[in-house]
Amino acid sequence: MAPLADRAPQQSTASPAAPPAGHPPVLPNYPRAHVPTKPVLSRDSFRRAGGHAPSILDTREALLVTSGRVAIALALRQMGVGPGDRVLMPSYHCASMIEPVVWLGATPVFYRIHGDTQVNLEDVAAKLAGAKVMLATNYFGFPQNLSALRAFCDQHQLMLLEDCAHCFLGEHQGRPVGSFGDYAIASTMKFFPIYEGGCLVSARHSLAPVRLQAGGFKFEAKMAVNALEDGFEYRRLGTVRRLLALPLGLKNFLLGQLKRHSHGAPAAMAPRSSEGGFGFDPAWLHKRGSLFSRLMLRLVSRGRMGELRRSNYLRLQSALAGLPGCRPLHAVLPERVYPWVFPLYVDLPGPVFDSLKKDGVPIVRFAEYLWQGVDATVCSNSVELSRHVLQFPCHQELQEQELDWMIDKIKTAMLAARAP
Q: What is the CATH number of the domain that holds 325?
């Protein structure tokens, strides 16, 4: 797809206007997705397949934490970011990328991106004054020109934070993603069948100064049980579900009673990122990832993950090719790229989004709400992408019939949106 022109965006939107920063939006009451939006645990999760898929964990050192946003905060701390500092941030973003910067007292300075999501280095160069760190995002699993970004940061004495929240797997010019930044972060819960998880890595600096603590028994138990329940909800692990039906039913009853009779809000047992919430919660800043999640990172096959993500992506691309009213954000899937999702540019996103959500089709809307003040005058490409790009899962735990059903629903919604 040719880059989008840097022009004023269309006014049609797929969702309400962005809420004030720090305030979650009021969302329509759509039904539960009939297909898992993210990987869920199944018997096949542990099947060895595919070759070696390079990943961010192939860098020198890694710490497993509870979310990508926590990893961003820890990375910025390690880079000495504090009150009054300026951090160069992409104008195409979600709030969880910006909130750690604000929490540290620093100022986010938003730079432009091109229509294909690549960093606009000319705009970055115009905003260097007083900047200490540049965060660059590998959107949807497609790496930036990381060698060029590294050279640019070295030239201008900037520290580079490589955001691999969408890009746990992959490489650029023969090196794994995450190895170009001074620090890099990832969101493991986007790629593994786990309920929480992120990581902080560095190919250039020791992570020994970062001290992490265990989250406690309640946290550990909740992360394991919730990951199992996510699998049960989508009809995986049938035998395990039947064996655990009684104790899990009792657990849900007791939790319900506890909430009913408790005075005040109970202490959070999971990070907001796991519960689908907005905001950055510093209470989880020094908690290590759960034992269950760390175990899954060892047991789940990265080779199978990479192979199936590419296969599912290409199947979506082939099935939707030529469909009027939409086009893939990227015309080609390069070798050694392992997508997080399948990003689809939709001409009329409003009716398509609403129709698909009502049918229970899982849609990810990255950057649906841009930070206050980030509008077309800051970067029209970012506004255009935030309104028109819908993302659909292509993860390794999708079953063939689920993918077929999703493709059929997308085609139906696209054709209906263009009907007179």
A: 3.90.1150.10
